[in-house]
Amino acid sequence: MINVVGGTYREINFDDVSMEIFGSGFRCAKFLLENKSSVNFITSGNAEVVKVLKENQKVYPKLKFECHPYDELITFQYSFALDDPSIFPSLLNIKKTKDWEFVGDDLIAFGMLESDYEIDCKRVVYDPQTSIKPKRFSELGKAQELVYIINRNEAHSISSSQDIEEIKKYFFKEENVKAFIIKNGPHGATLYTKSDEHHIPCYITNNVYKIGSGDIFTASFGYYWMSKNLSLEESALFASKSTAVYCDKKAYIDCTNNFKFEYKEFKARNLSKKQVYLASPFFTLSELILVDKIRDALLSFGVNVFSPFHDIGLGEAISIAKKDIEGIENSDVIFAVLDNLDSGTLIESGFSMAIGKTIIGYHRTCDDNKLLMLKPGNFTTNSNLTAALYQTIWSL
Amino acid sequence: MSGSGGGGYVPPQRNEFDCETSVILTNVSSINLTVLAKHTVGTVLEVVIGENGEVLLEDGDGEILGAILHSNTPDLIDCIENGVEYQAEIQRIDTPTCTVKITII
Questions:
Q1: Is A48 in contact with A26 (CB distance < 8 Å)?
Q2: pLDDT for B76-96, tens place per residue?
Q3: Helix, strand or coil for residue A346?
Q4: What number of C-beta contacts closer than 8 Å exist between A and B?
Q5: What is the ipTM of this complex?
Protein backbone atom coordinates (compact mmCIF):
# COMPACT_ATOMS: atom_id res chain seq x y z
CA MET A 1 0.00 0.00 0.00
CA ILE A 2 1.32 3.42 -0.93
CA ASN A 3 -0.22 6.49 0.70
CA VAL A 4 -0.56 9.61 -1.43
CA VAL A 5 -1.19 13.12 -0.11
CA GLY A 6 -1.89 15.81 -2.67
CA GLY A 7 -4.34 18.00 -4.52
CA THR A 8 -7.19 17.12 -6.85
CA TYR A 9 -7.70 20.02 -9.23
CA ARG A 10 -9.37 20.88 -12.51
CA GLU A 11 -6.86 21.44 -15.32
CA ILE A 12 -7.77 23.38 -18.46
CA ASN A 13 -5.31 23.51 -21.35
CA PHE A 14 -6.12 25.73 -24.33
CA ASP A 15 -3.25 24.17 -26.33
CA ASP A 16 -5.03 20.84 -26.74
CA VAL A 17 -8.48 22.19 -25.75
CA SER A 18 -8.83 19.86 -22.80
CA MET A 19 -10.48 20.01 -19.40
CA GLU A 20 -9.76 17.24 -16.92
CA ILE A 21 -9.82 16.66 -13.19
CA PHE A 22 -6.40 15.58 -12.00
CA GLY A 23 -3.97 17.61 -9.89
CA SER A 24 -0.69 16.16 -8.64
CA GLY A 25 -2.12 13.95 -5.93
CA PHE A 26 -4.82 12.32 -8.00
CA ARG A 27 -2.55 11.87 -11.05
CA CYS A 28 -0.04 10.11 -8.80
CA ALA A 29 -2.81 7.86 -7.44
CA LYS A 30 -3.89 7.10 -11.03
CA PHE A 31 -0.36 6.05 -12.02
CA LEU A 32 -0.14 3.70 -9.04
CA LEU A 33 -3.63 2.25 -9.61
CA GLU A 34 -3.02 1.64 -13.32
CA ASN A 35 -0.01 -0.36 -12.18
CA LYS A 36 -2.08 -2.44 -9.76
CA SER A 37 -0.80 -0.85 -6.53
CA SER A 38 -3.03 -0.39 -3.51
CA VAL A 39 -3.46 3.32 -2.83
CA ASN A 40 -4.67 5.29 0.15
CA PHE A 41 -5.28 8.79 -1.24
CA ILE A 42 -5.72 11.79 1.05
CA THR A 43 -6.88 14.98 -0.60
CA SER A 44 -9.23 17.95 -0.21
CA GLY A 45 -12.16 18.83 -2.41
CA ASN A 46 -15.82 19.56 -2.98
CA ALA A 47 -18.67 17.23 -3.93
CA GLU A 48 -17.43 17.04 -7.54
CA VAL A 49 -14.04 15.75 -6.37
CA VAL A 50 -15.73 13.12 -4.20
CA LYS A 51 -17.86 12.06 -7.20
CA VAL A 52 -14.77 11.65 -9.38
CA LEU A 53 -12.98 9.62 -6.72
CA LYS A 54 -16.01 7.37 -6.22
CA GLU A 55 -16.18 6.71 -9.98
CA ASN A 56 -12.51 5.76 -9.90
CA GLN A 57 -13.09 3.48 -6.95
CA LYS A 58 -15.54 1.47 -9.08
CA VAL A 59 -12.80 0.84 -11.67
CA TYR A 60 -9.90 0.54 -9.22
CA PRO A 61 -11.03 -1.50 -6.19
CA LYS A 62 -7.55 -0.95 -4.67
CA LEU A 63 -8.29 2.76 -4.18
CA LYS A 64 -9.13 4.03 -0.71
CA PHE A 65 -9.56 7.75 -0.25
CA GLU A 66 -10.19 10.40 2.34
CA CYS A 67 -11.37 13.78 1.03
CA HIS A 68 -11.18 16.72 3.44
CA PRO A 69 -14.13 19.03 2.78
CA TYR A 70 -13.36 22.14 0.76
CA ASP A 71 -15.73 24.60 -0.93
CA GLU A 72 -14.02 24.91 -4.29
CA LEU A 73 -12.68 22.80 -7.12
CA ILE A 74 -9.43 24.70 -7.66
CA THR A 75 -8.74 25.26 -11.36
CA PHE A 76 -5.42 25.61 -13.19
CA GLN A 77 -5.87 27.18 -16.60
CA TYR A 78 -2.98 27.02 -19.09
CA SER A 79 -2.70 28.81 -22.45
CA PHE A 80 -0.10 26.14 -23.14
CA ALA A 81 1.88 23.95 -20.80
CA LEU A 82 5.07 26.04 -20.79
CA ASP A 83 3.17 29.17 -19.78
CA ASP A 84 2.41 30.03 -16.16
CA PRO A 85 -1.13 28.89 -15.34
CA SER A 86 -3.90 31.15 -14.12
CA ILE A 87 -5.25 29.73 -10.87
CA PHE A 88 -8.89 30.09 -9.75
CA PRO A 89 -9.58 31.20 -7.10
CA SER A 90 -6.48 33.40 -7.18
CA LEU A 91 -3.68 32.49 -4.77
CA LEU A 92 -4.63 35.45 -2.58
CA ASN A 93 -8.21 34.21 -2.26
CA ILE A 94 -7.57 30.53 -1.64
CA LYS A 95 -8.95 29.59 1.75
CA LYS A 96 -7.38 26.80 3.77
CA THR A 97 -8.97 23.60 5.03
CA LYS A 98 -8.37 22.56 8.61
CA ASP A 99 -4.84 21.22 9.08
CA TRP A 100 -4.60 17.45 9.28
CA GLU A 101 -2.08 14.79 10.22
CA PHE A 102 -1.01 11.61 8.53
CA VAL A 103 0.89 8.74 10.14
CA GLY A 104 1.89 5.72 8.06
CA ASP A 105 4.64 3.77 6.32
CA ASP A 106 5.21 4.70 2.66
CA LEU A 107 4.03 8.10 1.47
CA ILE A 108 4.25 10.21 -1.67
CA ALA A 109 3.43 13.77 -0.62
CA PHE A 110 2.77 16.80 -2.81
CA GLY A 111 2.49 20.37 -1.61
CA MET A 112 -1.12 21.59 -1.69
CA LEU A 113 -2.54 25.08 -2.18
CA GLU A 114 -5.50 24.65 0.12
CA SER A 115 -4.27 22.30 2.85
CA ASP A 116 -1.45 22.14 5.36
CA TYR A 117 -0.67 18.81 6.94
CA GLU A 118 1.71 17.06 9.31
CA ILE A 119 3.45 13.82 8.45
CA ASP A 120 5.08 11.05 10.42
CA CYS A 121 6.09 8.22 8.07
CA LYS A 122 8.81 5.67 7.46
CA ARG A 123 9.60 6.43 3.81
CA VAL A 124 8.55 9.65 2.11
CA VAL A 125 8.94 11.04 -1.40
CA TYR A 126 8.19 14.76 -1.18
CA ASP A 127 7.44 17.11 -4.08
CA PRO A 128 6.68 20.65 -2.82
CA GLN A 129 5.04 21.66 -6.12
CA THR A 130 5.73 25.38 -6.06
CA SER A 131 8.79 27.58 -6.34
CA ILE A 132 6.96 30.45 -4.62
CA LYS A 133 7.76 29.87 -0.97
CA PRO A 134 7.81 26.06 -1.13
CA LYS A 135 7.32 24.38 2.23
CA ARG A 136 10.34 22.61 3.61
CA PHE A 137 9.66 19.02 4.64
CA SER A 138 11.17 19.79 8.05
CA GLU A 139 8.20 22.14 8.59
CA LEU A 140 5.75 19.32 7.81
CA GLY A 141 6.93 16.45 9.89
CA LYS A 142 9.22 13.47 10.14
CA ALA A 143 10.40 10.62 7.95
CA GLN A 144 12.91 7.86 8.59
CA GLU A 145 13.94 8.01 4.91
CA LEU A 146 13.19 11.10 2.87
CA VAL A 147 13.66 11.82 -0.84
CA TYR A 148 12.94 15.30 -2.18
CA ILE A 149 12.00 15.80 -5.85
CA ILE A 150 12.31 19.45 -6.88
CA ASN A 151 13.15 21.71 -9.79
CA ARG A 152 16.02 24.19 -9.80
CA ASN A 153 13.90 27.13 -8.59
CA GLU A 154 12.53 25.09 -5.70
CA ALA A 155 16.05 23.95 -4.78
CA HIS A 156 17.25 27.57 -4.74
CA SER A 157 14.24 28.77 -2.78
CA ILE A 158 14.31 26.00 -0.14
CA SER A 159 18.08 26.17 0.45
CA SER A 160 18.32 29.97 -0.04
CA SER A 161 21.33 29.34 -2.28
CA GLN A 162 22.21 29.12 -5.99
CA ASP A 163 25.42 27.21 -5.31
CA ILE A 164 25.08 23.44 -5.73
CA GLU A 165 27.58 22.65 -2.97
CA GLU A 166 25.61 24.84 -0.53
CA ILE A 167 22.35 23.29 -1.76
CA LYS A 168 23.71 19.77 -1.15
CA LYS A 169 24.93 20.75 2.31
CA TYR A 170 21.51 22.22 3.13
CA PHE A 171 19.49 19.20 2.03
CA PHE A 172 21.70 16.58 3.67
CA LYS A 173 22.30 18.47 6.93
CA GLU A 174 19.18 20.57 7.51
CA GLU A 175 16.51 18.47 5.78
CA ASN A 176 18.24 15.19 6.62
CA VAL A 177 17.40 13.65 3.25
CA LYS A 178 18.46 10.22 2.04
CA ALA A 179 18.63 11.73 -1.44
CA PHE A 180 17.24 14.55 -3.54
CA ILE A 181 16.56 14.94 -7.23
CA ILE A 182 16.74 18.24 -9.10
CA LYS A 183 14.74 18.20 -12.35
CA ASN A 184 15.96 20.34 -15.22
CA GLY A 185 13.40 20.11 -18.04
CA PRO A 186 14.74 18.72 -21.33
CA HIS A 187 18.21 18.37 -19.79
CA GLY A 188 16.93 15.59 -17.52
CA ALA A 189 17.61 15.50 -13.80
CA THR A 190 20.34 14.84 -11.27
CA LEU A 191 20.02 12.45 -8.34
CA TYR A 192 22.15 13.48 -5.38
CA THR A 193 22.96 10.97 -2.66
CA LYS A 194 25.42 11.57 0.16
CA SER A 195 28.18 9.85 -1.74
CA ASP A 196 27.25 10.20 -5.40
CA GLU A 197 25.60 12.13 -8.21
CA HIS A 198 23.80 10.44 -11.08
CA HIS A 199 22.61 12.06 -14.29
CA ILE A 200 19.07 11.01 -15.21
CA PRO A 201 18.43 11.47 -18.94
CA CYS A 202 15.40 13.03 -20.58
CA TYR A 203 13.96 11.40 -23.71
CA ILE A 204 12.80 12.81 -27.03
CA THR A 205 9.11 12.10 -27.64
CA ASN A 206 6.77 12.83 -30.56
CA ASN A 207 4.11 14.42 -28.40
CA VAL A 208 4.76 16.43 -25.26
CA TYR A 209 1.88 16.18 -22.79
CA LYS A 210 3.79 18.28 -20.33
CA ILE A 211 1.05 19.08 -17.83
CA GLY A 212 1.40 16.45 -15.14
CA SER A 213 4.71 15.07 -16.41
CA GLY A 214 6.43 16.17 -13.17
CA ASP A 215 3.71 14.42 -11.17
CA ILE A 216 4.34 11.23 -13.12
CA PHE A 217 8.08 11.46 -12.45
CA THR A 218 7.44 11.75 -8.71
CA ALA A 219 4.70 9.09 -8.71
CA SER A 220 6.69 6.57 -10.71
CA PHE A 221 9.87 7.21 -8.71
CA GLY A 222 7.88 6.45 -5.53
CA TYR A 223 6.39 3.36 -7.17
CA TYR A 224 9.76 1.93 -8.26
CA TRP A 225 11.41 2.70 -4.93
CA MET A 226 8.60 1.71 -2.57
CA SER A 227 6.63 -0.96 -4.46
CA LYS A 228 9.35 -2.56 -6.55
CA ASN A 229 12.17 -2.01 -4.05
CA LEU A 230 14.57 -0.75 -6.71
CA SER A 231 17.61 1.32 -5.80
CA LEU A 232 17.33 5.10 -5.82
CA GLU A 233 19.28 5.34 -9.07
CA GLU A 234 17.27 2.62 -10.82
CA SER A 235 14.05 4.22 -9.56
CA ALA A 236 15.04 7.60 -10.99
CA LEU A 237 16.12 6.13 -14.33
CA PHE A 238 12.86 4.19 -14.72
CA ALA A 239 10.87 7.22 -13.53
CA SER A 240 12.33 9.23 -16.40
CA LYS A 241 11.25 6.47 -18.81
CA SER A 242 7.72 6.34 -17.38
CA THR A 243 7.59 10.13 -17.73
CA ALA A 244 8.63 9.91 -21.39
CA VAL A 245 5.86 7.39 -22.11
CA TYR A 246 3.35 9.65 -20.36
CA CYS A 247 4.55 12.71 -22.32
CA ASP A 248 4.15 10.86 -25.59
CA LYS A 249 1.03 8.75 -25.03
CA LYS A 250 -0.60 9.90 -21.78
CA ALA A 251 -0.14 6.32 -20.57
CA TYR A 252 0.80 5.17 -17.06
CA ILE A 253 3.46 2.57 -17.66
CA ASP A 254 5.76 0.46 -15.49
CA CYS A 255 8.85 0.41 -17.71
CA THR A 256 10.33 -2.61 -15.93
CA ASN A 257 7.53 -4.81 -17.35
CA ASN A 258 9.00 -5.63 -20.78
CA PHE A 259 7.69 -2.38 -22.18
CA LYS A 260 9.17 -1.69 -25.61
CA PHE A 261 10.87 1.62 -24.85
CA GLU A 262 11.94 3.28 -28.10
CA TYR A 263 12.73 6.88 -27.20
CA LYS A 264 16.15 8.38 -27.72
CA GLU A 265 17.99 10.27 -25.00
CA PHE A 266 18.28 14.01 -25.46
CA LYS A 267 21.98 14.79 -25.39
CA ALA A 268 22.06 18.20 -23.79
CA ARG A 269 24.17 20.72 -25.64
CA ASN A 270 25.18 24.17 -24.52
CA LEU A 271 22.01 26.01 -25.50
CA SER A 272 23.42 29.38 -24.43
CA LYS A 273 25.41 29.33 -27.69
CA LYS A 274 22.37 28.55 -29.87
CA GLN A 275 19.82 30.95 -31.30
CA VAL A 276 16.20 30.53 -32.39
CA TYR A 277 14.69 32.97 -34.88
CA LEU A 278 11.06 33.65 -34.01
CA ALA A 279 9.12 34.29 -37.22
CA SER A 280 5.62 35.46 -36.41
CA PRO A 281 3.12 38.14 -37.28
CA PHE A 282 2.70 40.74 -34.53
CA PHE A 283 -0.14 42.94 -35.70
CA THR A 284 -3.18 41.86 -33.69
CA LEU A 285 -3.25 41.89 -29.91
CA SER A 286 -3.56 38.09 -29.86
CA GLU A 287 -0.48 37.78 -32.12
CA LEU A 288 1.50 40.11 -29.87
CA ILE A 289 0.55 38.18 -26.74
CA LEU A 290 1.43 34.87 -28.42
CA VAL A 291 4.82 35.99 -29.75
CA ASP A 292 5.72 37.35 -26.32
CA LYS A 293 4.75 34.08 -24.60
CA ILE A 294 6.61 31.93 -27.16
CA ARG A 295 9.76 34.04 -26.73
CA ASP A 296 9.47 33.75 -22.96
CA ALA A 297 9.07 29.95 -23.15
CA LEU A 298 12.10 29.60 -25.44
CA LEU A 299 14.25 31.83 -23.22
CA SER A 300 13.33 29.70 -20.22
CA PHE A 301 15.17 26.77 -21.88
CA GLY A 302 18.36 28.88 -21.80
CA VAL A 303 18.53 29.41 -25.57
CA ASN A 304 18.97 32.81 -27.28
CA VAL A 305 15.99 34.12 -29.19
CA PHE A 306 15.96 36.61 -32.05
CA SER A 307 12.45 38.01 -32.22
CA PRO A 308 11.99 40.85 -34.74
CA PHE A 309 9.28 42.43 -32.59
CA HIS A 310 11.44 42.39 -29.46
CA ASP A 311 14.90 42.79 -30.97
CA ILE A 312 14.30 45.24 -33.81
CA GLY A 313 10.94 46.76 -32.98
CA LEU A 314 9.13 49.21 -35.17
CA GLY A 315 10.89 51.40 -37.72
CA GLU A 316 11.65 52.01 -41.36
CA ALA A 317 10.63 48.95 -43.41
CA ILE A 318 13.78 48.29 -45.48
CA SER A 319 16.22 48.48 -42.58
CA ILE A 320 13.95 46.20 -40.53
CA ALA A 321 13.85 43.63 -43.33
CA LYS A 322 17.66 43.69 -43.62
CA LYS A 323 18.05 43.12 -39.88
CA ASP A 324 15.51 40.27 -40.06
CA ILE A 325 17.57 38.59 -42.79
CA GLU A 326 20.71 38.95 -40.68
CA GLY A 327 18.82 37.50 -37.72
CA ILE A 328 17.84 34.44 -39.75
CA GLU A 329 21.39 33.95 -41.02
CA ASN A 330 22.73 34.09 -37.46
CA SER A 331 20.16 31.63 -36.06
CA ASP A 332 20.35 27.84 -35.79
CA VAL A 333 16.66 27.11 -36.16
CA ILE A 334 13.54 29.03 -37.22
CA PHE A 335 10.34 28.81 -35.19
CA ALA A 336 7.49 29.95 -37.46
CA VAL A 337 3.97 30.85 -36.32
CA LEU A 338 2.00 30.05 -39.45
CA ASP A 339 -1.64 30.69 -38.52
CA ASN A 340 -3.18 33.29 -40.87
CA LEU A 341 -0.30 32.73 -43.35
CA ASP A 342 1.26 36.14 -42.78
CA SER A 343 3.28 37.19 -45.85
CA GLY A 344 6.29 38.31 -43.78
CA THR A 345 6.43 35.00 -41.90
CA LEU A 346 6.19 33.03 -45.16
CA ILE A 347 9.02 35.07 -46.73
CA GLU A 348 11.14 34.49 -43.60
CA SER A 349 10.35 30.77 -43.85
CA GLY A 350 11.11 30.62 -47.58
CA PHE A 351 14.43 32.43 -47.14
CA SER A 352 15.30 30.12 -44.24
CA MET A 353 14.54 27.08 -46.38
CA ALA A 354 16.70 28.45 -49.22
CA ILE A 355 19.74 28.74 -46.94
CA GLY A 356 19.19 25.29 -45.43
CA LYS A 357 17.89 26.21 -41.97
CA THR A 358 15.68 23.89 -39.93
CA ILE A 359 12.15 25.29 -39.65
CA ILE A 360 9.70 24.22 -36.94
CA GLY A 361 6.23 25.45 -37.84
CA TYR A 362 3.34 25.88 -35.45
CA HIS A 363 -0.28 26.39 -36.53
CA ARG A 364 -3.79 25.25 -35.67
CA THR A 365 -5.69 26.39 -38.73
CA CYS A 366 -3.60 26.24 -41.94
CA ASP A 367 -4.54 24.04 -44.86
CA ASP A 368 -1.52 21.76 -45.46
CA ASN A 369 -1.60 22.53 -49.20
CA LYS A 370 -0.84 26.18 -48.50
CA LEU A 371 2.49 25.13 -46.97
CA LEU A 372 3.42 22.84 -49.86
CA MET A 373 6.39 24.93 -51.04
CA LEU A 374 8.11 24.62 -47.66
CA LYS A 375 7.94 20.82 -47.62
CA PRO A 376 11.15 20.15 -49.60
CA GLY A 377 13.04 21.96 -46.81
CA ASN A 378 13.94 20.70 -43.37
CA PHE A 379 10.44 21.64 -42.27
CA THR A 380 8.06 20.12 -39.72
CA THR A 381 4.84 21.44 -38.28
CA ASN A 382 2.92 20.76 -35.11
CA SER A 383 -0.50 21.93 -33.98
CA ASN A 384 0.49 21.69 -30.33
CA LEU A 385 2.56 24.67 -29.22
CA THR A 386 4.30 22.90 -26.34
CA ALA A 387 5.36 20.00 -28.57
CA ALA A 388 6.56 22.44 -31.27
CA LEU A 389 8.68 24.31 -28.72
CA TYR A 390 10.25 21.11 -27.39
CA GLN A 391 10.96 19.95 -30.96
CA THR A 392 12.73 23.27 -31.50
CA ILE A 393 14.97 22.69 -28.51
CA TRP A 394 15.59 19.05 -29.43
CA SER A 395 16.64 20.10 -32.94
CA LEU A 396 19.54 22.19 -31.59
CA MET B 1 -19.36 45.46 -14.76
CA SER B 2 -16.42 43.71 -16.32
CA GLY B 3 -13.16 44.09 -14.42
CA SER B 4 -14.76 45.67 -11.38
CA GLY B 5 -13.90 42.90 -8.95
CA GLY B 6 -16.73 41.02 -7.27
CA GLY B 7 -16.84 37.42 -8.48
CA GLY B 8 -14.20 38.02 -11.13
CA TYR B 9 -13.40 35.77 -14.08
CA VAL B 10 -14.92 32.32 -14.09
CA PRO B 11 -12.95 29.71 -16.05
CA PRO B 12 -14.76 27.44 -18.53
CA GLN B 13 -16.94 24.91 -16.77
CA ARG B 14 -17.68 21.24 -17.41
CA ASN B 15 -19.93 20.65 -20.43
CA GLU B 16 -23.54 19.85 -19.67
CA PHE B 17 -24.14 16.30 -20.91
CA ASP B 18 -27.13 15.61 -23.13
CA CYS B 19 -28.14 11.93 -23.36
CA GLU B 20 -29.21 12.21 -27.01
CA THR B 21 -26.53 14.39 -28.57
CA SER B 22 -23.38 14.50 -26.46
CA VAL B 23 -20.21 12.76 -27.56
CA ILE B 24 -17.31 11.65 -25.33
CA LEU B 25 -13.82 11.36 -26.78
CA THR B 26 -11.48 9.83 -24.26
CA ASN B 27 -8.67 7.37 -23.59
CA VAL B 28 -9.61 3.97 -22.16
CA SER B 29 -8.62 3.41 -18.51
CA SER B 30 -7.48 0.14 -16.96
CA ILE B 31 -6.98 -1.20 -20.48
CA ASN B 32 -6.55 -4.91 -21.21
CA LEU B 33 -3.66 -5.00 -23.69
CA THR B 34 -4.43 -8.58 -24.77
CA VAL B 35 -7.92 -7.51 -25.80
CA LEU B 36 -6.59 -4.31 -27.39
CA ALA B 37 -4.24 -6.35 -29.60
CA LYS B 38 -7.28 -8.02 -31.22
CA HIS B 39 -8.79 -4.74 -32.38
CA THR B 40 -8.14 -2.01 -34.91
CA VAL B 41 -9.26 1.55 -35.49
CA GLY B 42 -12.94 1.58 -36.44
CA THR B 43 -13.92 -1.35 -34.20
CA VAL B 44 -17.23 -0.68 -32.47
CA LEU B 45 -17.66 -1.77 -28.85
CA GLU B 46 -20.65 -1.96 -26.58
CA VAL B 47 -20.84 0.49 -23.65
CA VAL B 48 -22.04 -1.47 -20.61
CA ILE B 49 -22.35 -1.05 -16.86
CA GLY B 50 -20.12 -3.44 -14.90
CA GLU B 51 -20.68 -5.24 -11.61
CA ASN B 52 -19.34 -2.31 -9.57
CA GLY B 53 -21.46 0.21 -11.47
CA GLU B 54 -18.52 1.28 -13.64
CA VAL B 55 -18.69 2.02 -17.38
CA LEU B 56 -16.97 -0.71 -19.40
CA LEU B 57 -16.32 -1.36 -23.09
CA GLU B 58 -17.22 -4.87 -24.24
CA ASP B 59 -16.31 -6.37 -27.61
CA GLY B 60 -18.31 -8.82 -29.72
CA ASP B 61 -16.67 -11.79 -27.95
CA GLY B 62 -17.83 -10.54 -24.56
CA GLU B 63 -14.30 -9.46 -23.58
CA ILE B 64 -13.74 -6.20 -21.71
CA LEU B 65 -11.31 -3.73 -23.31
CA GLY B 66 -11.29 -1.35 -20.35
CA ALA B 67 -13.21 1.34 -18.50
CA ILE B 68 -14.34 4.90 -19.16
CA LEU B 69 -13.28 7.45 -16.55
CA HIS B 70 -14.28 10.85 -17.87
CA SER B 71 -15.78 13.91 -16.23
CA ASN B 72 -19.10 12.95 -17.88
CA THR B 73 -19.04 9.31 -16.72
CA PRO B 74 -21.71 9.85 -14.01
CA ASP B 75 -23.95 11.53 -16.65
CA LEU B 76 -23.39 8.63 -19.02
CA ILE B 77 -24.41 6.16 -16.30
CA ASP B 78 -27.60 8.14 -15.62
CA CYS B 79 -28.48 8.08 -19.31
CA ILE B 80 -27.79 4.32 -19.63
CA GLU B 81 -29.93 3.65 -16.53
CA ASN B 82 -32.71 5.61 -18.24
CA GLY B 83 -32.60 3.25 -21.22
CA VAL B 84 -30.28 5.11 -23.63
CA GLU B 85 -27.80 2.86 -25.45
CA TYR B 86 -24.30 3.89 -26.49
CA GLN B 87 -21.46 2.54 -28.57
CA ALA B 88 -17.75 3.27 -28.54
CA GLU B 89 -15.76 3.39 -31.76
CA ILE B 90 -11.98 3.07 -31.59
CA GLN B 91 -10.50 6.26 -33.03
CA ARG B 92 -6.81 5.78 -32.41
CA ILE B 93 -4.51 3.07 -31.11
CA ASP B 94 -1.04 4.04 -29.93
CA THR B 95 -0.40 1.05 -27.68
CA PRO B 96 -0.89 1.11 -24.72
CA THR B 97 -3.16 4.10 -25.34
CA CYS B 98 -6.52 3.65 -27.07
CA THR B 99 -8.85 6.56 -27.79
CA VAL B 100 -12.57 5.93 -28.26
CA LYS B 101 -15.55 8.04 -29.28
CA ILE B 102 -18.77 7.29 -27.41
CA THR B 103 -22.05 8.12 -29.16
CA ILE B 104 -25.69 7.16 -28.87
CA ILE B 105 -26.76 4.13 -30.96
A1: no
A2: 999 999 999 999 999 999 999
A3: helix
A4: 45
A5: 0.90
